[in-house]
Structure formats: structure tokens, C-alpha cells
User: Which sequence fits this backbone?
């Protein structure tokens, strides 16, 4: 179930890249597809909660499973928000740092998809956690220098704040991947 | 205790509506009453923590109770912040989407008050969780189109950002209701 | 281990004060030193996670320990972000309310350092929790009146938003201290 949920994140990060590479006119249609992935994610979360409510046996705390499902959901919510806001605000051109943000999200999605099956054996989760933390630090640096450029380059205030809303959501998605990794680390700590 | 705490949220949402319907001159007095409700909420949270520290027996994890108390507190904090900022920033006129945000908060408060006694029996909590999640999705849509209108209608930047601060807190309150529902869902999952 | 981690927060709050008291030209060097403290904090967090993954016995839930380590990390992240952004945005002059924010962070750091050894005996943690909550309420008031001044005094929008980014991170650090106190309160509740 969690490998499926993480698969939605990977689909989401691929669509994000497609959206920001596309002509503005094509973006609404891609944002709609990303919204469908987010709905699939909501359904996956809800299926996990329903399964927890029935009598099935879990190898981990029900609590941890609920938390992990919620955190995976947060990643996809932030990705979808970034896409949706870029369409709603009719932003034509995004600064180049956005490409770097999306590349990091894509890498974090792949690492998370890879880590999920390892929850069964609790092997090699430490290296996953360290790499996600490194990626989150990189994301912070990209985010801040992107904002510093915007603020120091005399961007027109309204345009700046539209872009900032989108860029903030991408930064939130990177933070949310770290929260996912922290829950997994905490599960591994308890089970070891 | 939790039904009382949820009752504070309902009082808060009623005062929020009163405040945003009132003339600007009357708002400081209503904001003061909302701050009193927030203090009552802080006292309720603290009473729950104190009770946990004494030897009384709880039907649930102490941990979950502490988390639920904290999340209920977050809802009221965000409501009070919205009221307080609207007064501090001397905002005269709020966009019409704010009414829709407050109507959603009121509905979420009523659902939460209704759900609290059902924690004792763990009945019908699934439908509560689904409805709160639907409301949170609606809140997201209202929030984003409200911002898109503000950003695309040539609102003067400083006025836009004052309004955005208030509207952000209302959105945070809607998110916080979802966090409350997630903790309750997680309690129900563990106890079932 | 936690007393060491809290000691990093105290070092961080001292460097923050030094940075905002310094001439703008000296700030990059102080921000670099704060970044080194943050890296020491990351290492401390990781050492705690690694220790949890080995077979050593803990007096508390592994889960609570992981959460506490994460929350302490969040405080230092926010402090470091405030310092880094003030340098990146080349802010020359900060409003006077920033001094009050930093004084509160310093006080919260001292209280947290003092509280850590008391986790062993669970004595006097209630007064720590109450005082941190009071400080967080004060921080909210300082933050909001600082913003109200900026917004109502006709500050130029771009300058306003650079300052707001820094001030937001200082507010986030104060919130993060409250989250630390909530986890400690929850540990005390479970163990009592």
C-alpha cells in the first residue's frame, strides 16, 4: 500500500516537471491531471485508514502507519498546490531555480519509492534518511537563493509574490519528504 | 473535557462571523471577546495536561490525548490570529470569499463538537473524518480563488498583503480542523 | 545528549543577537558561524537516531525521543534561516521589535537547557511548560505589533517583505520552542 502511495508522488513529480516545461496554455490540462493523481493519493490514504479500522494485523504501530499515510499525503498536496497556483495566478515565466527545485523533488520521490519496500526488512533505511536530509538542505539553498535573486533584482511586487506562492509550495513539498523520512526513521528505531 | 474544548471552537467560529459582519469600529471589542475564548481554550488544554499528570486512568493513550489537546488549541489560535490581525492592520473591507471561509469553519466546528462524544463509543467517526476532509478541500478551493482574484485584480500590494495575512490564518484554521480529525481517526484505528 | 542539543540552541540564540547587533558588513561571517552550529545540531540529531537504532535501552519511548530530536532541530533551522535570509536579502536596518523577538528566543533557550536534565527525574516540568507557553504568547504579540507597524507605516513593499521573511523565521523559532515543550509535557504525562 505504501509503495503505491509513494508511486503517486513519483507520478506527481513527473507531471510537475511536464507542467513547468510546457507552454502556459497547456498548463491547465496538466494541472488537472496532477489533481487526479492527488485524488488517487487521497483514496490511498483513506484505504490505509479503513484497513487500520478493520481487524487486519499490522507489523508496525497503527499510529505510525496513520502518520506515514498523512505525511505522504502532505507531499502530494504541496505539489498539487504549486501546479494549481501557477495556473490560477496566470504566471507566464518562472525563474530558473524552479527547475532545480523540481529536480530535487523528483529525486526525493524516487528515493522514497525505493525505500518503501525496505520497510519490510528495515534494511538500508539509514542511508535513505541521510540522503533525504541532504536533499532537503540542498532544496533550502536553492529556495533561498532563488528568493534572494527575485527580491534583489527589482522584480515587480505583485509578480514577485505570485512566484513566491508557487516556490513556497515546492519548498513545502521538499520539507514534507523530510517529514516522511523522519517517520520512517522513527518506525525503524522502534522496531530495531 | 474534549467536548468542552470543541465547544470553544464553536464559540470562536460564531465570534469570527460576528466580527467580519460588523462595522470596523466594533471589531476591536469582538476581537477581545475572541481572545477571552482563546484563553479559555488554553486553560482547557492545560487542565487536560494536568489531569494526564495525575494518576487518573484514561481510556486512550496519554500521547494521543496530549496531541488532540494541542491540535484543538491550534484551531483556536488561528481563529484568534485572524481576528486580531484584521484589527491590527485596520482592514476596512474584506473580499467576499472570506464569508465562505468562515462558513466552512463554522460547519467544521459543529461537526467536531458532534464527534467528540462519539470518541467514547468510536461509532460513526469514519463519516466525520470524510466530511472534514471534504470541507478542507472546499476551503482550499475558496482560499485559492480568493487569492487569485486579489492578485489578478490589480489590488494595491500593501492592501493585498494585509488581507492575505488574515485569509492565511483562516486557511490555517481549516487545515487545523483536518489535523484534529486525523488524530481522532488515528485513535479510532488503534482502539478498534 | 538532549542537554547538548539544547546547548546548541543557546549558542544559536547568542549568535543571532550578535548578528543583529553587528554592522551589516560583519553579518555574513556571523551567519557562517551560526550555520556551523546548525550543522552540529544536525549531527546531534543524527547521533540520537543512530543510538536509537542500536540496541541501547531508553527510559522513554523511542518514538518520543525521535520527535524531541526533530523538534529541537526545527528551532535551530528557523534561527539559522533568519540569519541567512537577513544576509541574502542584504537588509541594512531591522525594526526594533526584532530585539524583543531575539530576547524571547534567548530566554526560551535558557529554559530549555535547564529543563533537559529534569527529564531524568520528571520534576518541575510543569512550570517549564507554562513559562514557555507564556513566552510564546509574548512572542506572538511582539510579532504582530511589529508587522502592524511595518504595514501601517507605509514601508516600501519589497523592503517590507524582505523584513517579513526574517521576522517570520524568528516567530517560527518561538513556535518551535513551544513544540519542544509540548513533546516534553507529553513524555512527562506518559511516565507519571
Assistant:
Amino acid at each position: 500500500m505504501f509503495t503505491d502511495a509513494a508511486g503517486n508522488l513519483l507520478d506527481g513529480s513527473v507531471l510537475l516537471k511536464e507542467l513547468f516545461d510546457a507552454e502556459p496554455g497547456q498548463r491547465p490540462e496538466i494541472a488537472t491531471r496532477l489533481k487526479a493523481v492527488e485524488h488517487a493519493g487521497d483514496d490511498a490514504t483513506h484505504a490505509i485508514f479503513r484497513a487500520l479500522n478493520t481487524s487486519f494485523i499490522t507489523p508496525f504501530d497503527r499510529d505510525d502507519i496513520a502518520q506515514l499515510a498523512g505525511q505522504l499525503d502532505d507531499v502530494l498536496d504541496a505539489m498539487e498546490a504549486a501546479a494549481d497556483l501557477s495556473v490560477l495566478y496566470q504566471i507566464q515565466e518562472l525563474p530558473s531555480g524552479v527547475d532545480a527545485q523540481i529536480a530535487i523533488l523528483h529525486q526525493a520521490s524516487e528515493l522514497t519509492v525505493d525505500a518503501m519496500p525496505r520497510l519490510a526488512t528495515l534494511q538500508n533505511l539509514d542511508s535513505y534518511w541521510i540522503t533525504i536530509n541532504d536533499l532537503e538542505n540542498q532544496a533550502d539553498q536553492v529556495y533561498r537563493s532563488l528568493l534572494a535573486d527575485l527580491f534583489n533584482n527589482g522584480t515587480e511586487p505583485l509578480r514577485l509574490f505570485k512566484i513566491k506562492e508557487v516556490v513556497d509550495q515546492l519548498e513545502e513539498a521538499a520539507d514534507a519528504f523530510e517529514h516522511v523520512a523522519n517517520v520512517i526513521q522513527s518506525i525503524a528505531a522502534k522496531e530495531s
Observations:
- Chain C has a mean pLDDT of 89.
